[in-house]
Write a structure and sequence with these properties.
The protein is of the alpha/beta class. The protein has seven helices and twelve strands. Helices cover 39% and strands 22% of the residues.
């Protein structure tokens, strides 16, 4: 049987960390890579047989690659603290890593929940992430945000879905979107992109229309409106932050 390491990145995840750890209890090693949480995240995590690594956050790729390098096993399951791996997916992961296939990583589709409702539309219906990797062939590509796994071997799909509780509370949702917008602005600045008036005005509007109308977000009720609005908000914030970077302001 192949041994499996599970990696959970955290920062102030006291609400989620216990359930996240329990959902990867099938792993032979559980690593918590923490960005110096100030709540009870680590206090809760220490109740379990986990390995805790503290590292100052710089970007998502570096944070996860650092933890991957510390893993004792070549097969790694990556789990965000607001995700859950239920029994059938656990069994499928174990089967996949012990198969004779030549895949370097596996995509997993997600069931997304927001404000106590499963989201069926809004562009989230085909949401997928790479969550099982063979570290002999895989690493993150270095993007500051929306990081992606690069694999020198083919990748496949698992059938079972991972459960994703994307909303903790309003303040944390805003904070998360602001962090993402800031990192995206940094990426655009590195590419010498400019925050034009057209981008500031029209990109957020188009993003709202795309998610609420073109991707049928209106069928998700208030949650669909919430998603479309915050995608637009993130786009607007991204270009405001890029404008500030362009101007050399703080």
């Amino acid at each position: 049987m192949e041994k499996i390491s599970a990696i959970i990145p955290t920062f102030n995840e006291e609400m989620h960390i216990e359930a996240a750890i329990q959902s990867v209890s099938f792993a032979d090693e559980i690593i918590i890579i923490d960005s110096f949480s100030t709540d009870k995240t680590l206090e809760i995590a220490k109740k379990y047989s986990v390995r805790i690594i503290e590292r100052a956050f710089d970007n998502f790729s570096n944070q996860k690659n650092y933890a991957i390098e510390k893993a004792s096993n070549k097969w790694v399951v990556l789990l965000d603290s607001d995700e859950r791996i239920e029994k059938k997916l656990q069994e499928e992961i174990i089967s996949a890593v012990n198969s004779d296939s030549d895949f370097g990583a596996y995509w997993v589709y997600r069931r997304n929940f927001l404000l106590n409702k499963e989201i069926k539309y809004s562009g989230w219906q085909n949401d997928k992430v790479v969550r099982v990797i063979n570290t002999d062939y895989c690493k993150y590509n270095g993007k500051l945000v929306h990081e992606e796994i690069e694999s020198t071997k083919p990748m496949s799909f698992l059938k079972e879905r991972i459960v994703h509780y994307t909303y903790k509370n309003f303040d944390s949702f805003i904070s998360k979107k602001n962090k993402v917008a800031h990192l995206q602005a940094q990426e655009l600045a590195i590419m010498n992109k400019k925050a034009t008036l057209v981008r500031l005005l029209f990109k957020p509007i188009f993003r709202f229309i795309n998610h609420y109308f073109l991707r049928l977000g209106f069928l998700d009720g208030f949650q669909g409106f919430f998603i479309a609005s915050f995608y637009a908000y993130t786009i607007f914030t991204r270009y405001v932050k890029l404008w500030i970077i362009n101007k050399g302001l703080k």
